[in-house]
């Protein structure tokens, strides 16, 4: 596709990922139209146009896409049949609807990895809680719902037989609990011409209870051999999917040095927010370049960076108050990104903080300072 700043791009989802995508799209004078069920979605006031409507409703998605040149997503929970039919009518849809449909189902994801020789942890399909209980000899393990899980929901660790009572009574799978050294992520982009580029591997730290990324460091503190293997694995996954767009791949680095794919997301992702300040090209610009079939941008690291998720404090619901913001803003190399959400609730993603520093030790100190001093209360 030749460069065209008059493209009408429709984005299913109007959350923070869409908001940051629009902020990149403005540099190219692109027209970004947003669809979201929330009347006060973060994209509402900065999109070229905003439509309130259900992303899972066939007629709503068909009507939204009717006058768009290109359609993309910022969340997987969308009506893929509508996207397939829009594609059949000649609309460009990236990532392709079939791939979104595959990734919507975590069980089908695991089956895809197994069928395509992509390393992943051993797993067993289950239909209900009884099936999970029958696998007690596999304990400890992780129980995941096939569909409906998001931002840590639909995933739980079961360590012993006493915990089997909380198993999901719905279709999904049980997978081996991986004894990992680090949790890593690689974001890879691919355009229609088949050009691929990866961002440097990042190291993620998750909240111990709510399974959300608390913070991450880029680049990850891993050997050159592991870095090369992670980059190669990311390219292998997106190539085998034959996907156009941006793919975030979460991996485990095991204590014996293996890389296992955990899950993927066919869109911009929490593990790439630091690229806005930390890399030559951000993940959001790269997503636009990939779906428009433009040359992909330079992903080199400008300087070491970290990202701290700004989550609503536990026990607080109401209009957001950012306690400690002035002290954080006074730190060198700190960049604040608020998502336009007026109301906070426990563990809601309200924004993120990027911290950059040429000295990794100072970077870690500043991350701890942000985590300790900045709270979202009501």
Essential attributes:
9-stranded antiparallel sheet; Dna Ligase, domain 1; 29% strand; Rossmann fold; globular; D-amino Acid Aminotransferase, Chain A, domain 1; 11 helices; 378 residues; 5-stranded parallel sheet
Helix amount, in percent? 25-40%
Secondary structure: number of strands: 22
The CATH class of the largest domain is identified as Alpha Beta
Rough outline: globular
Q: Could you say what the CATH architecture of the largest domain is? A: 2-Layer Sandwich
Low-pLDDT runs of 5+ residues are none
How far apart the termini lie comes to 47 Å
Number of helices, where a helix is a run of at least 4 consecutive DSSP H or I residues: 11
Q: What's the domain count?
A: 3
Please give the radius of gyration in angstroms: 20 Å
- The name of the CATH superfamily of the largest domain reads ATP-grasp fold, B domain
What structural class do helix, strand and pairing data support? alpha+beta
Largest sheet features: 9 strands, antiparallel
Global mean pLDDT: 95
CATH fold title of the largest domain: D-amino Acid Aminotransferase, Chain A, domain 1
Beta content comes to 25-35%
The oligomerization state is single chain
């Amino acid at each position: 596709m030749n460069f065209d700043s008059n493209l009408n791009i429709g984005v299913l989802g109007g959350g923070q990922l869409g908001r940051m995508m629009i902020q990149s799209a403005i540099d190219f004078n692109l027209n970004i139209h947003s669809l979201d069920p929330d009347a006060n979605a973060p994209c509402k006031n900065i999109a070229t146009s905003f439509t309130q409507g259900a992303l899972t409703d066939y007629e709503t998605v068909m009507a939204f896409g009717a006058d768009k040149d290109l359609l993309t997503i910022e969340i997987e929970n969308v009506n893929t049949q509508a996207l397939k039919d829009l594609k059949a009518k000649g609309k460009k849809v990236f990532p392709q609807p079939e791939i979104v449909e595959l990734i919507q189902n975590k069980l089908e994801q695991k089956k895809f990895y197994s069928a395509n020789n992509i390393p992943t942890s051993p797993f067993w399909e289950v239909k209900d809680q009884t099936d999970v209980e029958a696998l007690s000899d596999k304990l400890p393990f992780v129980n995941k719902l096939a569909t409906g899980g998001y931002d840590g929901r639909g995933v739980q660790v079961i360590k012993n037989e006493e915990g089997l009572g909380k198993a999901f009574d719905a279709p999904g799978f049980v997978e081996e609990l991986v004894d990992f050294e680090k949790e890593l992520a690689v974001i890879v982009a691919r355009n229609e011409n088949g050009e691929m580029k990866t961002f440097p591997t990042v190291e993620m730290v998750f909240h111990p209870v709510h399974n959300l990324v608390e913070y991450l460091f880029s680049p990850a503190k891993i050997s050159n051999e592991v870095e090369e293997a992670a980059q190669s694995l990311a390219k292998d996954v997106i190539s085998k999917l034959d996907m156009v767009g941006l793919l975030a791949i979460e991996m485990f680095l095991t204590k014996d040095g293996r890389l296992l794919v955990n899950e993927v997301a066919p869109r911009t992702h929490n593990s790439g927010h630091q690229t806005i300040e930390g890399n030559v090209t951000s993940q959001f610009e790269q997503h636009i370049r990939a779906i428009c079939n433009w040359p992909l941008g330079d992903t080199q690291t400008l300087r070491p960076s970290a990202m701290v998720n700004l989550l609503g404090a536990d026990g607080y619901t109401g209009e957001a108050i950012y306690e400690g913001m002035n002290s954080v803003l006074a730190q060198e190399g700190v960049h604040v990104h608020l998502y336009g959400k007026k109301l906070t609730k426990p563990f809601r993603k309200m924004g993120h903080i990027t911290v950059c520093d040429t000295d990794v030790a100072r970077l870690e100190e500043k991350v701890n300072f942000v985590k300790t001093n900045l709270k979202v209360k009501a």
